Each structure stands twice: as C-alpha cells, then as structure tokens.
Amino acid sequence: MPESAKKMPKKSVPAMRQLYVQSRFERPEDAIGFWLWRAAHSYQRIFDQAMEPLGLTHLQFVMLAVCGWITGAQEKPASGATQRDIAEMALVHFAQVSAVLKTLEQKGLISQARDGKDARRRSIRLTAAGAKKLGEALPLAQQLQQTLFGTAEQQEEVRSRLRDLIAGWSQLEEQTSEE
Description:
Helix content is 68%, strand content 6%. It has eight helices and two strands; from the N terminus they run H-H-H-H-H-H-E-E-H-H.
C-alpha cells in the first residue's frame, strides 16, 4: 500500500465517496471526459508504437506533417512556417511546439532560420531528410487511421463529429477567455 494511502484518515474515504454521490457520476466511467482522455491516450500510444521504427513519436509526426503541409502543400511555401503557424494548426501549446521542433532540428528533419526582419521569428522548413521521413510516415499513419476508424465513410463520420466538438469547444474557450 502506498505511504500516502496509509496516512489518509479513515474518515476521508466516506467523504470522498460523498463527493461522487453528490455528482452525477458515481464512478469515473460515467464521465465522458474519462473516455475522451482514455481514447486520446490510447490513440497516442498506438500511434507512438507505429512510428517507433521511424524514430518518431506521435507529436513529432504531427509537427512534421503540419510543417510539411504549411510549407509545401498549402499556405506558405516561400516564407516557411512559423512556430505560431504550427501551434495554431496543430492546436498545441507554443512551448511544446518549440521543444518538439528543437528535437526535430537535432534529428536533422527540419531547419529553422531567423527572419531577417524580426529576430524572434523563425522560418521553419522540412529538410530533405524530413521530407523523406514524412514520406515514410504518412502511409503508416494512413494505414493506422484505416485500421482504427474503418472505411473512408466511417472515417468521415468520426472526423465530422470531432470537428463539430472542437468548433463548439473553441467558442466556449473564447467566451471564457473574454470573461
């Protein structure tokens, strides 16, 4: 038994149970957040395992894919991506993006060049090795998506529901940040 559990007074156990009695949740499994947390972390663990042979984590793959999308396939091929671009597209905290980009740079998968006009701003691009690694990782990610979420039609249903949830949550975040 953990030391902290030994120190907990016996009166606290009924008090803790009372917290759940007073809520709508009698047990963790009754809360949607519990299942969302488990689903997100299970997905991340499965994805990490799939990317391990390539030397990538799920988050590193996301940063590579987003950077590749912004700079190569989509929006800013000439100027490169910024940390803010990547953070906003991936919905990842700026500090976490910074740490992951540093790791990707150390692995030789991205380059970061200072902007000539603003020394705080960096232009981020995939290196040739990064583009190659992304080319190896994308088919694995697509296969994993199909394995986990089914046919293209089933995947679109999941995507649509997740987009709706995130859009609603984004509005809620904006409302609470204004208060």
